[in-house]
């Protein structure tokens, strides 16, 4: 059974770096002041929980009204599922949790700079790829050498208020 644990602040950074290293071979820190969530799976045979993934994201500022300002949008900075656990639905699950957390605060677009190899994953989760990408010369991991800008628009729910 998957469990998700939210953390904030520098205390969780070492754990985040560990997941980043196990997943990509490189060390990444979550951006300052970002939300961090860790994914654990319970192993029946051992009775223990193992850390299988992590993500970091920044929630849009509800008081920001200018769409051109960076903090108008939600931003997913990192999403990692360790190799052994990939392809089992955990990434989708973790992303759903993050999106709900974002939309609870304010309904705004979500931006992500996806690794080129994960573009298809994000398309399956409703993100669109604008064709804009950047080659990151400073990236230690080949995984993040080319980053593709992707966006997911918030789902608008209509409320039919029928005052009959
Ligand atoms: C990208 C990542 C988070 C996906 O997590 P995951 O647990 O492997 O993905 P899921 O099992 O939840 O996959 C959900 C769907 O996306 C598809 N998918 C996942 N990764 C894919 C990929 N790289 N290319 C194409 N499709 C992919 C799955 O087949 C599945 O499809 P389905 O719903 O039709 O069955 C994970 O592979 C990872 O950590 N990769 C390395 C780091 C990275 O690139 N992170 C993203 C940018 S920060």
What does this structure look like?
The protein has 164 residues and is of the alpha+beta class. It has three helices and seven strands. Strands 1-2-3-4-5-7-6 form a seven-stranded mixed sheet, sandwiched between helices. The longest helix has 16 residues. It is globular.
Jot down its keywords.
164 residues; Aminopeptidase; single chain; binds coenzyme A; 3 helices; GNAT_dom; alpha+beta; 7-stranded mixed beta sheet; acyltransferase activity, transferring groups other than amino-acyl groups; Acyl_CoA_acyltransferase; 7 strands
Write the layout of secondary structure elements.
Blueprint lengths: L1 E7 L4 H12 L10 E9 L4 E11 L15 E8 L8 H16 L4 E6 L3 H6 L3 E8 L10 E7 L12
Parallel strand pairs: 4-5
Antiparallel strand pairs: 1-2, 2-3, 3-4, 5-7, 6-7
The site of coenzyme A has 21 residues, from helix 1, strand 4, helix 2, strand 5 and helix 3.
Beta strand %: 25-35%
- The CATH superfamily bears the name Gcn5-related N-acetyltransferase (GNAT)
Order of helices and strands: EHEEEHEHEE
* Main β sheet profile: 7 strands, mixed
Sequence of strands across the biggest β-sheet: 1-2-3-4-5-7-6
Query: In CATH terms, what is the architecture?
Result: 3-Layer(aba) Sandwich
Q: Return the CATH topology.
A: Aminopeptidase
Which oligomeric state applies?
single chain
Hetero ligands: coenzyme A
Contiguous runs where pLDDT drops below 50 for at least 5 residues? none
Look at the structure and give the mean pLDDT: 91
How many DSSP helices?
3
Radius of gyration: 17 Å
Pfam families: Acetyltransf_10
InterPro entries: Acyl_CoA_acyltransferase, GNAT_dom
GO molecular function: acyltransferase activity, transferring groups other than amino-acyl groups
